[in-house]
Amino acid sequence: MSFRIEQKILIGKNQIIEFKKIYQEKLLKKLYPSRLIKSLYFENLNNDMYNDSVEGVVPRKKIRLRNYPNEKKKKFYLEKKISSVEGRYKEKKEISSSNFEKILKSGLYDYDYGYCRPLIYVEYKRNYYILNNARVTHDSKIKYYQFKSKIIKKDENEIFEIKTNSKADLDELYSIFPMDRTRFSKYCNGFEKFFI
């Protein structure tokens, strides 16, 4: 497993133009074409994944099914984002469309959290960049909806995330982007929009 350092910058709607100017001036290089991402997050009946995330408990995890709706070749992934004492890492496994449908219908069992049912979709546009040795992502047009509902709630904020394996690279990026770091979870934000 590969541990990574992640830092997020939450960009309010009145900061977006200014922030985009900063990162254009710093010559971020486009790494991949932008794409639409759709994730379905799972939760147990006690909402323990949400509560653990809000309280910053370690170890903790988030479980999701992910796909890329606009891609011609449909692929589905089961992902677990794990925060441990040692650091953060992600487990990712491609699954078949039939397995995807089965999990949608029946939920899944997790060793730590027990039975988990599908709860919240999160959909957004992601842009991928590289700067020095760090990968940088910019998420916009974020929207949330419940698994069994058509009601959509939009997020006017955008998220800029720096991902690196090196503390030195992170320190250098801090000097380039002198903005406040934040803890931000799309899943938790979506959960709060519907249930808090």
Keywords, separated by commas or semicolons:
196 residues, 24% helix, 10-stranded antiparallel sheet, 5 helices, mRNA Triphosphatase Cet1, Chain A, alpha+beta
3D architecture notes:
The structure is a single chain. This protein has 196 residues and is α+β, with helices and mostly antiparallel strands. The protein has one domain: VTC, catalytic tunnel domain (mRNA Triphosphatase Cet1, Chain A, Alpha-Beta Barrel). Helices cover 24% and strands 46% of the residues. It is built from five helices and ten strands, in the order βαβαβββαβββββαα. A hairpin with a 5-residue loop joins β8 and β9 (152-155). The termini are far apart. The mean pLDDT is 86.
